[in-house]
Structures are given as structure tokens and as C-alpha cells.
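To: structure subgroup
Subject: Chain for Friday's discussion

All,

I'm putting the inputs and outputs inline so they're searchable in the archive.
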Amino acid sequence: MSAWVYILECSDDSYYTGCTTDLATRVAQHQSGFYGCFTSFRLPVKLIWSEEFQDVRDAINAEQQIKGWSRKKKEALMKGDFDLLHELAQSKEMIQRRKKQARKSS
């Protein structure tokens, strides 16, 4: 069974990341405040990104991973900017180490 991971933009400019097997119904539920959750206090919401997965478990894993990301990282994903996404995924220590190596090379 396939499933979707999705990101909604809420009226307060926050993002909500979720997972579902029926994207259209789930977005409509968010829009109506059906569950009384995070999005119901930030209506209206707008679907701004989604990706389909063939396995529900893969979608759940992706959802959990994305929920832990920074706003900048989510925005890079939504824009399809995979170079920036890769850069943002690097640890601060790795970035500092590369800058230090670049200075030594100069």
C-alpha cells in the first residue's frame, strides 16, 4: 500500500509534516479542523509539498526524519535544492573542519 509524506503551510507560516494513505482526504481533514490538532489552531492550511512512497513504513520513516529537520532544511527539500539540503545536513563540526582545511590550502 502506498502512502504520502506531506508538508502543510499553516496560516501562521509554520509547517506541519504528516503521513497518510489518502492525501486528499487527510488535507481536507486538516482544513476542517477534524482532529483538533496542531493545524486546527492555524487554519487555513495549504499543501505545499508531498511525496509518494510505495511502502507505508518508508513514508513513516521519512515523516519522522523530516519532522526533526530545521525550517531551512524543510524549505530546501520543498524547493528541490538538494545541494543546499546536503549542506544543511552536515554537522557544524564537519563544516568548521572544511573551512579550516580551505584556509590552510589558501
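Points worth raising on Friday:
The chain is about 50% helix and 20% strand.
The radius of gyration is 17 Å.

D.
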